[in-house]
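Support reply, case 0932

Customer input (verbatim):
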Amino acid sequence: MERILWLYALPYNPQYPVVCFDERPCFLIGDLLPPVPMQPSQPRKEHYAYEKHGSCALLAAIEPLTGRRLGQVQPQRTKREYMEFCRALAATYPDAIKIRLVQDNLNTHNASAFYAHLPADDAFALAQRFEFYYTPKSASWLNMIECEFSALARGCLHQRIPTIEQLRTSVLNLLAERSAKQIKIHWQFSIQTARTKLNTHYERVHAANVKYAEPHPSPDTSALGQPGAASQPEPVAGVQGERVGSAMSQKDLET
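Our regenerated output:
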């Protein structure tokens, strides 16, 4: 995890661009009955019944510091599709010495995909264009492409799209629009923050990591014994003023 956080904190270097990549399934869904179009003071309405037309895969990457995006919609996601995407990504950065690619540990996400579908010399040359940085298991939140997938879901993928051609057109147009606007991602979760907020996990690895724990304020004993003295700590202001506790549960730390 810290290796990726270190990578995100580096200043922009066009010769070593940091690119976040992942894949996600997309389901092709059509309407059984024609939807009612939008009218004045009336939203568009669709029947609850639908029909499935299979699925496809969206492969996408984003360079968070520049807002550059690349996407492909394929019928499936195998080593061939991964190789083709990486080849397109390498062509997008012709002047880069190394593309620092952040991705998960899927069994297709490695240089073996290049050797499986390219001659050895071409596969080696393509592999030399990349440095792979893998997110830990169950830590996809560290990959900034997930932020882009969320935006794509709100922008077009939440709709019923019956064919892969329509889905490809919708997704790639939205990616091109967001890329043209240079919408960037400003990552704020640092190594120091991780060591503090996730200190319970750090302590399990080595007891000396307790030094990174967030210090607890000393209790104020001056009012003890006085009538009306508060026995609970002051609430921390949160969203809409609700009480937010100071401790995090195990589930909070893992999500």
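We compared this against your earlier run and they match. Two observations from our side: The first helix runs from residue 2 to 8. The longest strand covers residues 18-31. Please reopen the case if you see a mismatch on your end.
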